[in-house]
Amino acid sequence: MLHTDAAFRKPREIRRHDETVREKSSAVGRSGLTAAQCSTAITSLLSLVPGRFSSELGLVLSPRRPRDLFLWFLAAILYGARISGSIVVKTHSEFLRRNLTSPDRIVNTGWDGLVEALDAGGYVRYDFKTATKLLEVMNNLISRYGGDLKTLHDAAADARDLETRLKLLGKGIGDVTVQIFLRELRGIWPKARPTLSPLSILAGRDLDLFSTDGGGGRITVDWLRVLWKQAGVKGKTFSDFESALVRLGRDYCRQRRTHDCPMREYCA
Length: 268
What we know:
The chain has helices spanning about 10-25, 35-50, 55, 65-80, 85-95, 105-120, 125-145, 150-155, 160-165, 175-185, 200-205, 220-230, 240-255. By secondary structure, it is mainly alpha-helical.
């Protein structure tokens, strides 16, 4: 639990932030922290826990970098299975090493070649299933959108339609994969507005950033944006904040690993 700093005197702008927090929090459950305490917790989180998963893979997500956008989509498919993150990183690296960096190249390598690449990366548990999934998804991406994810985004009527179109690329693309993919495209694709991961909600509750399960609703995303803007962390993005919450929820909160949690002193 955070402790109030007795020596902290709130200037006028911080008082206004507190009023905003209290007003916004009524929609999702009142936070037990002051605005200053929320900001301290968020700043500490981003200094102690890695942010975006795409950055970990050496990718820079931008509309001007379609190759990186595609490689992030590939990574989201790999992350969507119940498998360790380290295996995903290794497998993704193996795809790059084999130059499997576009829908056409993945299709042309064939099922056997994909199984070989997946096995080389340690993705053995789901190799056959994932090879089949990748071929279906890439063939549909090519036939429907010319192999271009931006074309898919532009064709979508709104955020919900974008998510539906991604899922229709193949039966192996579900809610989890779509959420992973679009989470790091907030602010990059206008229609990328997924709900929060249950893991980020769990971590947010444990940090007392909000005191409700939030239902994963978009209103909870708006609430986190209020806290993020208030924290003013330089050199990081909202996606870094959201991804750090996911990591914290996955690696510590879900497992109740409090003894070595980097944020244990902030836990509610």
